[in-house]
User: Fold these one by one.
Assistant:
Number 1:
Amino acid sequence: MIIEDLSEPELALWEAFPAARPVDLPGTPVRAAVIAEMLLGARERLAGQTPGMHLSGALITGRLDLSYAEVQHPLILTRCDFEEAPVFTGAHTGLVDLAASRLPGLHAADAVIGGGLRLEDCVIDGPVQLGGAHVSGTMNLSGTVIHADLAVQADGLIVDRDLLCANAVVDGELRVVGARIGGTMTLDGTRVGRSGGCSLTAEGIVIDGGLSCGHGFHSYGELSVQDARVGRRCVFSGARLSNPDGIALNGERLAIEGGLLVNEGFTAEGEVLLRGAHVAGSLSFALARLVNPGGRALNAPLMEIGSGLRATPGFVATGEVFLDSTQVRGSVNVDGGKLSNPGATALSLRRLGVTGRLSCSEGFSADGEIVLSSARVEGSVDFHGAALSNPGGRVLSLWEVNAGGGIDCCEGFTAEGALSIRNSRIAATLCFAESTIDGELHLRGVEAASLKIGPQTVLLGTVDLRHTRVGVLDDVPGRWPARLLMNGFTYDSLEAPLPVQERLDWLAKEAYQPQPYEQLATVYRRHGHDEAARDVLLAKQRRRRTGQRLGARLWGYLQDWTVGYGYRPFRAGLWLAALLLLGTVVFTVHQPPAFKPAEAPAFNAFLYTLDLLLPIISFGQETAFGPRGLQQWLAAAMITAGWILATTIVAGLTRALSRQ
């Protein structure tokens, strides 16, 4: 370099370089070639001093090209205005500090930057190319404004410490696919992306110290951390993601060693995709708002959550919340949440596994169906106080659920639509106390420790209890609806067994089936109410009679009048006593003549009447005396009545004894 060719500002920089003294040249042109030559050894070192380039405020003319160069000195060009984009492609440098400068771009692919890269508060009107670069210190883009379709291209970037990009404006895509960050990656307060495109593309990135896209962060387009690995925790608290009709957050197979915070005012317009993600800590959606009408607001099947899922308070989702095959260690809490997907599934929890409880209570509401099937919840399933609506469809489908606690639809629970629980196992109480269900209630094939229907329960549609088994039926018979299906419904005991007439009215709500009567009678006997059990079985025979043919009905009426189908045996005694009295009086007044007067025993009207009424036992009176005229017709009637009474008594007693 010829010293005489240097301008006065360049000469000042030449003199300052050996000691790395700062030079401030506001608005003064300095040739990029002069800077490059000094960095590459044109300026000799001075003994006892450390050289370096420290320039502020200058206009850098020409291109600063250090491609594949070995630069051992720090490069500090702050508040400078670059005429052309600097080139560091493949270079090995120390610290590069371009803070608060204006650049038309930056080319540093495959560069090795040994002391950190500072680009904070820059204005960059072109792409920043850092693909394959290695920054051994911190890379700082905080406060920087970048305008380009592909604003930052840093695939394969390695940053040994932190990548800071807080309060920046990245007007285009920030792409760090396959990058490795040794510290934290911070984008709090940053605006990134353009509508309809991609914002942050960080697929396969590894961030050892955690990712923070917190308060003030705004993403336009798809933000992708698919297949990323994040140490500590991943934070989207207060962030806003906007990609309507598309994917707002793509976290497929995202792995986080700590918690995932999508809370504190987080808003997503578009789908939040977390399929197959693994969160070792907790997942929080408290005060989050997800909007994707007609689609999936939260698409998170096959997730593994190590310390509970919390979406309370204030969680709002417009569109389906899809959590099929997700496994949660701890509890799932959506208390107070508001889900809306009218006419479709609002919350899907097929094959869900939860080691704690599942709670959708305390102001929770859903417009659309909630599906929980083939699921295992080791704690309780709570919907108390929830408001579910899906007119014309099902509001809640719990199929093949294994609950280690109870299922609570009490304390103000309301459902506008059908509620279906099928083939489920419930270790504690299935509760509908103080609930209102404006639709059918299907409880088929359910096993529960108890079933509770309270005095304030309102059931407006058909209730199907077929093939359900409960330990204790704790209900108010009058609160059941007008139509019940109970064939195969079994229970071990009744919390309030009497009065029996209320139970009979309860059984009358269903078309005749014998099993519900047999079941109720069995439970009454177990309680020690044998008379009530006989009342139930008598009512069963009377209802059974209504569907029989004429002959069978007449025979049934006869059994009912005479012995109450065997459950009223005292009636036979009354009939016999009445006939015995009648016969004794008639035959005392008009003694029938003897067949053989010389051989006949003394006539006894009482014993003669007994002989007529009892078809098997003989007292020797009927064979010795023969009535005439009207007495003969009376005798024939008594013989017929005796046979009928004997037959009905035997049949009735046999039936009664077989039930004991």
Number 2:
Amino acid sequence: MGGQKFEYDESGSTFFYFVLSFLALILVPATFYYWPRKRKEDPAKQAELCQCPNCVQKQIIIEQSEPYKKVKNFFIMLAIISGWVLLGFLAVKVSQFDYEMSNFDPYEILGLPPGATQAEIKRSYRKQSLILHPDKETGDEKAFMKLTKAYQALTDEEARRNWEKYGNPDGPGAMSFGIALPSWIVEKENSVWVLGLYALVFMVALPTAVGTWWYRSIRFSGEQVLLDTTQMYFYFCHKTPSMPLKRALMILAASCEFDKRHNSEIIERITDNEEVPMLLRELPNLGEKNKEQPLCRPYSIKARALLHAHLMRMKLPEDTLEVDRRYIVSRCPNLIVEMVNCVNQLIALAYARRIPRLPTIGTIENCMKLSPMIVQGLWDYKSALLQLPYINEDHLKYFTNRKKHIKSLLQLAQLSGDERRQVLRFLNDKQYDDVMKVLGNMPYIHFQVNTEVIDDENSTVVTAGAIVTVTVLLRRTNMKELFGDTSIKEKTLKEEEEGGGDVPEKGENEKNNKTDKSEKKDVYKRPVWMKQKKGPAKKTKKPVAKQQVKPAAAPAAPATPAATSDKPKENKEPKKKDEEGAGEESDEGSSDESGSHSDGSGDESRDKSSAPDDDDDQWDKFQKRLQKRERLEGRSKSSHPVHCPYFPLEKQEYWWCYICDRKSNTLLTAPAHVTALVDSHELQLRFTAPRWPGLYTFACCLRSDSYIGMDQQQDMKMDVKEAAAVPAEHPQWDLSDSDTENNEEGGNESEFTTDDEVEEE
């Protein structure tokens, strides 16, 4: 019976196989991912790019930002080519190895068919031995040994029996396990060098690499923001629950990424002692006398001054402050996303009663406003038309006359060709073409929401305390589809005047905030997951009493252009934090729609509410949504390029989507960051319905992080019905006496404000 033996590779054949396989596993993906490629731009897309001086200068700066790119690509190509040459050499060398025992067939070696007689075997052996014998001129020692072994295997009875039974003339041998390493590795004279190499790789290099990676990774958050910066955002957002826009900009400038002690890429120049004070004298309302740490530190004041100069589009010294401005501005988008996340987490903590003060909606929206401001290099109170090339403050007078008063990009796009050319008459033909390219490629979002209660028997009826699932469908088209389209112009202008189409601009927000401060103090109610205060009993039945009359009298507002879109689906947003209550809503089955649906979707919702419920269909629908969410574990960050000549890097369009209650100043859902809106995108958000019946109005908001004036808001009316009574036969659901007393004494005080309460106030 054969035994087992382990042996190192004496000839080196198996070692070469190992090296060949290992090298191929590295070279194939490395070639695919790291081989330098020249981006072949589509001529049609290249022709649509803006050729204004600012965009051309930006492309030059981007190309100059990587001076060693060609040298780096050369060495990458050299390394990959060398690897493939080595792979080819090893493949040729492996193919030349002699494996005579791998397929030992004595008949084939002797050149005889199976079943040949002994005489034929002897005759063939004598004939070939005269040729292959080592003493002959044509002799071959290895071939003669194989010939002799084949002759013995067929003439010796025992050898023939072993070959027929075991495939080896010598009988069963030991099972050999080869180690794909050359034998010189375990030789005594080489042991010191081998041990030294093992110690260098596994005891020095590997721990150093892992330790360096770990030390760097623990300093950053998920958005690649320093944890010290995140802690500072938490502190100031908690300290200032109602944060103005300039205060948010001041905190952004104090990020640790702009401090040389935390970031070695920051350059401190001697010229800053002269240039920064001169810049401060030119900037009003900078707040440089603020004594808070780190807002008063020199790096923070310098970053703040550069951001203000960027928003005012000031000219800075090219080799000093302009370089610093480009670096600071390029880091701001990720910092703003982290700031929004911090405010959102503080709101969740306030709902859980872990912190006493709740940040307002204005705080998180002001943080969001910073992103398009930084990307476009423009204050939010400035005209959105300044985002177009060649247009400055002096040209805004051409957009206002007795007949037309153009304030937004949408109004400009909806003009006819002759009217638009007349408005832009101060531009020559080439400049006008560039303006139309930029305007035509800007986004026009069809924004549609659908509300349902998935785990309820009737998904179109929202009951008190139910988990409301809101499906938001975003469909992006280019604004050039609106060129000369006057069919929706009157409707759009009317909605903008009424404030139902877009999120109010800063000036409008400030006016509304001033006029509504007294209302918000009285209107604000605690959310459902916070302990309800015991209110007077006289308010217990007011929402319910008026609820029977109010819904019938509520008129349905006309559908907006964004709501009259189709519903194509391409991808879906990954699942957000359920505990923070992500959700957006518009009541499908209610006749109290206020423009958040198109006419077709309203008819569908009425058909759904009138048809009998099918449990199997609802369950299948729910399972399909879960499967889609599970398939999309990652999140793409590629959508459409943004025209932003004042931003030093290439930028993609991203969006924030969330639901809030503006009457009670409450954020209902975590802002969903949509980063993959190419053609259409669908996301699901959830929140808890008010725990008391009534008619509520919520706002579904969509905010751009790249363009000013592209925000949208849809008001949604939700008729919350009273929840079904809990069956008495389930003792585990019985409410305690304290809960019953709390409900009776607290009355119907909701965490939100109904429309009836607002009218009464």
Number 3:
Amino acid sequence: MNKLKHLFHRNTFKKGIVVPSLIFILFVTFISSFFPSGTTALLGVVQEWIFTNLNWVYVWSVTFFVLFLLFLVFSKYGSITLGDNDSEPEYSFFSWVSMLFAAGMGIGLMYFSVAEPISHFSDQAFNGGSEIRRAKDAQLYTFFHWGIHAWAIYGVVGLSLAYFTYRFKLPLSLRSCFYPILKGKVNGIAGDIIDTFALCSTFFGITTTLGFGVVQLNAGLVQLGLIDGTGFGYQVIIVLVIMTISILSATSGLDKGVKFLSQLNIVAAMVFMLFILFIGPTVFLLGSFSEGIGYYINQFFDLTFNTHAYEPDIQPWFFQWTILYWAWWISWAPYVGLFIAKISRGRTIREFVGAVLIIPTAFNFLWMTIFGNSAIWLDRNDAGGLLSSMAHKSDELLFRFLEYFPVPELSSALAIFIIFVFFVTSADSGIFVMNNIATNNAAKSPKWQLVFWGVLLALLALVLLNAGGLQSLQTMTLITALPFSVIMIMFCYSLLKGLAVDYSYYTRMLSPATNYWSGERWKERLEGILSFKNRELVSNFMLGTVKPALDELAAEFNRSGITATVHTKDKPMELSLTIKHDLIEDFTYGVRNQSKMISDFLVNEDNMPGADENKTFVPKTFFGDSRPGYNIEYFTKNEILADVLKQYERFLELSSEVRNEIFTDTASRRIRNEGNGSTQL
């Protein structure tokens, strides 16, 4: 007893996340199990209202995610590494891509590979078109739902997590994605709420997938004659076997269990796909794959923005397929994003986005073409419409489809094996991710915590299967996708803000004040670096060093026949040397006493130059052409003289070039200003 008590005291759970999550999970399971009909009806009404009235939120959100990631690929931020600048990827490219599939949508490829194209092909909403048009559109819509848009959703969450975790050294949790906005508050209640949402969403997504997947596995085993029914007893055995292997895989770690199973399943899936390709209508499939890619590219933007507002007859289909898919992918994004981030250290942003968007999408397109178009071809030629008539039986459709190929028993067995391993890899990576969220990315957790999540998944999935409450849980998961889509947009804002700071930090050149530095007067330089100035000290520097330099230079200009004047202004103090011109822009070199905010971390740091408050003052230059200035607090009088002469030489060089007349010609600006109702220069 004492050993058991000691075991449970040794945990890395964060109570602020785990306790509210378990309360909510158990509450939802309770009402879904004991009041399945009423709960399903109520949540169905809510979902229908959201899909009908707020479908544009999903459409715009997903569109934004696609455009945002494409922007990052082609932007200056694309070369930033997810980790230290010299970080190397932890996994080989093949292992990385294999695990992407395992966590992302591997099981869905098996479940919908035949069911979705056949459903679109036979849907009453498209009966007005020819059979060929319906076949092409079935492939197009399947591509749309399983292509770039779906992976962009996963990519936004995965990239945000990987960036803030490996670049900013923050915990691998959703709260970290809000760091640029919330700063230190991410470690408080706000962060716990965000991670609680992520944990519940992940748990519900895996539970519903496990529950519905068990039904398909059961149907396949019946088809093979290995079991003689679809009763609850058989489902209990299937769940126990899946979760036992999943727990063993999860406790062995990413580098062993998850990695091995993911690679094994990709190889098995490739063999299965090639079997259908070469035994089926090969020439037709390869040709339709090429046409399908072209059709998808041609219709990309129309599909992306289309809400079918002018086609009320198609909108029910649109809500139950496209919007449901967007909601489903968004609801899975915390889980898949966390897993993708975990395995993506060392990749550049450009490599991450390119691989996540293109490689899985290309594979999905090939997979859906081979299975979906084979099914449609068979339905039109050999099956006499039988597959279309079974469109509502998604659990059985894949196995009925395989009956039209040689050795259906062998191919069905291979399909069951792939489905089984996909379930295991989804469950074991899900266990790993849930424990990661619950512990706020603790460095090392006891293995019993992984066992705990696996057992809880299995128990609640069986409870919901037996009570018929899985539909309620799935519906509620889809509803929660609406607020999470808004959260994901905030991720994008936060990520962009972090990237801007990151890029500026690593590309910042040395201060102009260091241009003149040598080993001479180094102690004075050091004293200046170690001190923070108030307004009065900077004003004294300007009056004692800057003004004499500008006065001396103005006197020399005047002796040379060039009129130059020095102007002084108070509050805030400004000094400027101006040479006025009639036909070209005036030359101005000025210095103002400007305040500058200091980071809280620097103020509170013991082993750094001391600062009493979050503000210091610096003498900062400004110019007549509105260029950004720079700090000259370390300049001597002679260095200020040299700096003014450098700027004046630049001014003369630019003014002498014909191509720069548009910037230097004051007459042209006068005409433009007068056209705008202003006579000021």
Number 4:
Amino acid sequence: MSLWLSGIGVSRGIAIARVQKMHGGDLEVPEYTLPEVEIEQEVSRFYGAQRKARDQLRAVRQQIPGGTPGEIAAFIDTHLLMMEDRSLTEAVVALIREHSINAEAALRRQRDALVAVFEQMDDPYLRTRKDDVDHVVARIQRILLKSERQIAPKTEGAEPFIMVSDDITPADIILLSQQNVAAFITEYGGPLSHTAILARSLGIPAIVGLRDARKLLRENETVIVDGEAGHVLADPDAKALDFYLRKQEHQAQYRRDLVKLKGKAAISQDGIKIHLLANIELLEDAAEAVANGAEGIGLYRTEFLYMNRKGLPSEEEQYEAYSRIVAAVQGPITIRTLDLGADKQVDSGRSNGPTPNNPALGLRAIRLCLKEPELFRVQVRALLRASAHGKVQIMLPMISNLQELRQSQQIIESSREELRNEGYKVADEVPIGTMIEVPAAAIAAPMLARHSRFFSIGTNDLIQYTLAIDRVDDEVNYLYDPLHPAVLRLIHMTIEAGIQAGIPVAMCGEMAGDPRYTRLLLGLGLTEFSMHPANVLEIKRIIIESNIGELKRKVKQLLTSLDPVEMRDLIDGLDA
């Protein structure tokens, strides 16, 4: 009899294949006291496991095929750096010596300490980087415990399979992608997990957060995975198989048709030009953005320059990094200033002071930069110097009032004068914009627009702050609703304020790259979308097929509705 299961669909596509389980999930870590004469031998055992784990990752790194998206190699590089990070290695050795305990127990203690720091982070994307710690620690633990996972080498003519596991590391995903894997199902993880990000990059259907999947799905049984809906159908009947086979072929043809749009402009049926930009983090992402037809960069995140290190990045180091990105992009590039909080300074920077009870509402982003202006000034100087090499815009995150905006602008302007007096080249014009991700900023948008050169709506935080929920928290993330009337009205207020002030309004949150919301956003008046490079072509297709004037008429009616059911029906009708 068929079994229907639901998880979180994080990478679209239909897969039909047999189940293969990856065993060896949760590790049982023993803890015991060592006699003094064995302590240094235990330290050597830990270093040996660390070296073996590092060599394994390097071997995986060498197996990444040419042309693979840069972010995939970047995950492995991040893990290699963590293998060498003193906050992991030296701390474990210190615990072994100080407490006379075995390496496995010391590694578990340090893992718990590091994860606790990441769990305090307010940014959902960065908080999920605790996965890096877990994956690196688990690899070393498996070597210490002699329980390493084995991925069988690919055999000629092997059938596709659907991997079911508790979680999957980036290294495992890279190896499995070369072993004819058709889809991933994991018991843990969310939309921002490594599995989700890498599966989307590789175009492999994936479902995460499907609890007890390893118990409910049998080895070698045929299952259907719908990565968009988040559904798994085990032991399907002939009628279900036929339906999903036809759906699978339809999606394959759809993807083939998208490629034809690469050189085509994003112009609607009624002649309105829409600008499609990309969100990036690494230099390699810029090449992918260009390849997918993005006109520029709508969000370049700079936080990774500050993480997994002891000291702060220097002005020169930041200048080199920004200059490489700017030189690689022909169109405009919007660089967001540091969006870290006091709780995230464990790797580099300030480490004093109590951990905030609620870091999402504490000292973070522009608040931190204004409280520690030298931290901000170093980055601003590097950004202004990089502006001499291309079309740079500076975006300020988490602005909640005009005073913060004006104070930030003053620091940027004084830094410009300093650089010119020192003989550095700086672009004549570097637009400074406001990121609208706090409800207060959306409500005050008419005032902020008078002092900003552009807006960019960060829907991820805007939705969370508006609805008072954390989408990374499994207990409440079902309340995360981009279509909540309050969220839609705040987005509309922001766009209208930009139109009235004559400044461009972009959106760089996940809504911008989600085809379910494209017509709605067009109807709200959005003309600049910034997203993951892989989503550009699909959003372009929807724009080309849309009549924006007609969408605006429908959305105007939607915004005046006071009935949630009617609003949902009107939203569904936008696709008709």
